[in-house]
Design a protein that fits this description.
mainly alpha; 192 residues; 11 helices; single chain
Length: 192
């Protein structure tokens, strides 16, 4: 089923209203949809590199708005909607422990989930559930999703098709390593 959903999502990049399809996918991915917007974004930018940053901007705005929906789900409908979504992602066991620590590191959690392969929707729901300050959530989401989408857009605009394999297979790893090094650097500063 996921493969069919993936293929269907990828086919949206060819649609005449692909920008709208990207906006919808970026919006719903931030709160419950399992396929990331990059699947549509990458072929769209390759097809029209002169619109790379417009495409990234649409993905950013829609993703942050979708993240706000995830926040609302966590804040007002966690028991009925948010918890089943997290359980379907296999994240239910650590929810109680996570919620007690989440707001201490909320900025970093949103930043990390916004740029790494970790499901951003988990963090959007948890942000609402733990009552993370909405302003912090929104600003961090803009920073994280902007970094992710605009870096992809820049790389495709600058290097075109040859960079596609790197983006699809290695960029998530690079983002993850960056976040680990960033956290490691801050942890090291505490002991210096």
């Amino acid at each position: 089923m996921i493969k069919r959903l993936y293929d269907w999502t990828l086919s949206l990049a060819q649609h005449p209203r692909a920008l709208w399809a990207l906006a919808v996918v970026a919006f719903v991915e931030s709160s419950f949809f399992p396929i990331p917007p990059d699947i549509i974004m990458i072929p769209m930018i390759i097809a029209r590199p002169n619109r790379a940053f417009v495409i990234a901007g649409v993905a950013l705005v829609a993703s942050v708005l979708g993240g706000m929906l995830g926040y609302v789900i966590g804040a007002f409908a966690f028991e009925t909607i948010g918890q089943p979504i997290l359980e379907s992602l296999g994240k239910s066991d650590s929810m109680a422990e996570f919620s007690t620590r989440f707001n201490d590191v909320g900025f970093w959690a949103v930043l990390a989930a916004g740029v790494t392969p970790f499901p951003y929707k988990v963090i959007t729901i948890m942000s609402g559930w733990t009552a993370m300050p909405l302003g912090t959530f929104i600003l961090t989401s803009i920073l994280a999703r902007g970094l992710r989408f605009f870096l992809v857009a820049f790389l495709l605009w600058k290097f075109g098709v040859p960079i596609r394999d790197f983006i699809e297979k290695r960029l998530p790893l690079m983002f993850t390593l960056f976040v680990i090094l960033l956290f490691g650097g801050f942890a090291a500063l505490k002991y210096l």
